[in-house]
Design brief:
The chain is about 35% helix and about 15% strand. It starts with 7 loop residues before the first helix and ends with a helix. About 35% of the residues are buried. The structure holds pyridoxal-5'-phosphate.
Length: about 350
């Protein structure tokens, strides 16, 4: 079924074989005169492993998943782009997105000349399953679900996700960038039951490594093999591979920070509820909170004047006069509430 979804040119193409692809280490100390590198050792003079084997091994153990179900990207953004390029024929196919949601899905669709069919979330920010199914046609290749959703902060119900996995004829891309802050479990342990499911996670949020750019895509080995064929050969730098390898091993520190952020999120909600001009505080399963205020532009500018930058999401559908606030350190959150009380 997946084979029928691949773009024709990509199905037919031979991948580029890099020097490091052609020669697999045989354990012996070799002299490498194959890749036109500078031979003088400085830690980064060699091209990085194109398959990031050591890092994938560690992720596989951590997430209890097979290595050939993992693809790494230069941020989730590269992985989203690879999905579009592998499965969507420009000027012919379409994707389905559910606004208000992450802006990159639409941007990347536009960049790749793929139609973006938008089906608004319902008033409770859950997917409108009926409407999604009726918007879909045989050219609908990808459906993007973001859960917990950015900017609304909520998780989509299991019922909605299952129902879409069962009814959508293309691939469902479930973006779990914020899953570590949610009460709900990741869908990762259900991956094997849904051949048309792809899950995205990232080191940019809970893992505290936005600066190294590492996104993780999980899918069937069949889907991973297709994406591997078209990814840039050395898409993950040596520095990123090293830093990710040591960073993700620090599970106690990561857990601790996530717990603190969740606790702070709840404190912040209490603080925000004392502010008169805040009309609505939406529940959050993420490390940010969406609020509705009297006048988003005015409040946004007032906070800037006071040295605090948040995100104005008013231009998004269903988000009239809404601001998105990332949970900061306890001190930062305290300062935010103090300033809001004075406005
Ligand atoms: C922040 C975020 C990401 C992460 O993107 P990276 O390119 O991995 O930093 C992915 N999806 C959503 C919805 C996000 O908000």
């Amino acid at each position: 079924m997946i084979q029928n979804l691949i773009r024709k040119n990509i199905k037919a193409m031979e991948p580029y074989a890099s020097a490091r692809d052609e020669f697999e280490g045989i354990g012996k100390q070799m002299i490498f005169l194959d890749a036109n590198e500078n031979p003088y050792q400085n830690g980064i003079n060699r091209y990085p492993d194109p398959q990031q084997k050591e890092l994938k091994k560690r992720i596989a153990v951590l997430k209890n998943i097979k290595e050939d179900s993992i693809l790494l990207g230069n941020g989730s953004d590269e992985l989203l782009d690879l999905m579009l390029r592998a499965f969507c024929e420009p000027n012919e196919d379409n994707i389905i997105t559910l606004p208000p949601t992450y802006g990159m899905y639409g941007v990347l669709a536009n960049l790749n000349a793929i139609e973006n069919r938008q089906v608004l979330l319902l008033d409770d920010f859950q997917p409108d399953v009926k409407s999604i199914v009726s918007t879909t046609d045989s050219n609908s290749k990808l459906l993007f679900l973001c859960s917990p959703n950015n900017p609304t902060g909520n998780c989509f119900s299991d019922d909605a996700i299952i129902s879409l996995l069962e009814q959508f004829r293309g691939i469902v891309v479930l973006d779990e960038a914020y899953i570590d802050f949610a009460e709900r479990e990741s869908w990762l342990n259900k991956l094997q039951y849904f051949p048309n499911l792809v899950i995205l996670q990232t080191l940019s949020k809970a893992y505290g490594m936005a600066g190294i750019r590492l996104g993780i895509l999980y899918g069937s080995s069949e889907i991973i093999a297709i994406l591997n064929k078209i990814k840039p050969p050395y898409n993950i730098s040596e520095l990123t591979q090293d830093r990710a390898f040591s960073g993700i091993a620090n599970t106690a520190k990561i857990k601790d920070e996530v717990n603190t952020i969740i606790r702070e999120r709840n404190n912040l909600i209490k603080g925000l509820s004392t502010i008169g001009f805040i009309k609505n505080i939406y529940p959050s399963d993420a490390n940010f909170i969406l609020i509705e205020v009297d006048n988003a532009t005015t409040r946004y500018n007032q906070l800037i004047e006071n040295g605090i930058v948040i995100r104005n999401r008013s231009s998004q559908p269903l988000c009239n006069n809404c601001l998105r606030i990332t949970v900061g350190t306890p001190l930062e959150n305290e300062q935010l509430i103090k300033i809001l009380q004075l406005l």
